[in-house]
Predict the structure.
Amino acid sequence: MTCYYRNGTHAADDTPCPNANTCCPSSATCTDNLLCRDKNNHANGSLTDFPDGHAYNYTGLYYTPSCQDKSYKGCSVACTTYDSYRGQYIWACNAALTKYCCHDDEASLGQGDCCDGGTFELAVPESSTLPSATPSPSASASASSSLSLSSSSVLAGASGSVSPSTTAAAAATNDLSTGAKAGIAIGAAGAGIIIIVLVALLLRARRLAANTPGQNQSEKHTFRTSGARARRAELEACAYAPPSELSARPARSRFELGS
């Protein structure tokens, strides 16, 4: 299938796109919004190194396709004129990839260099695929490193907005942190109560231990007093005992004992 530029000349380096009348270079990617995605347009915002030793960011870079129909039926004519004999560079100007601008071929190629001069709208290129990181011969080594369109914004458009589930997960993480803090506070309070109870029990045990020796001394004193009273009673009993009856037999004299 032959591909044509807008002026009707043959686009020898282009290849027909599937399910469309457009054509793109074999190094590029055909998109649903009828553009060609440049091979150096990396959705992750990475730079492309060139032989001159410089690296440039071409995230958001597209260009106009050629067409399988000379009248351009079913093809986009954005950024082209009737005498166009080649593709024209196009920059994406917003994260949603719905606004674009036509790069001026007379100016150095810098990211989003035409977005301030007027834009047009196209559908989001949903079916575009990631190109390789090999530098494209069509990209000039003298391209400007101006980054009027941040790669982060284009990356955000390619990757999509943050999903509600991600937000909910973040909220759950915050709730968990609060709960953990509350648990730590409750645990600390419980530990403090336990320590107070243990100290109170220890003091009570010491008081009981201090009182026990006094009680023993009292018991010993009582025992000694009781013993003294018993001995005194015995002595009194002996003192008041009635005299025993004397024998009526006269005592023997010393002389009688000797006989």
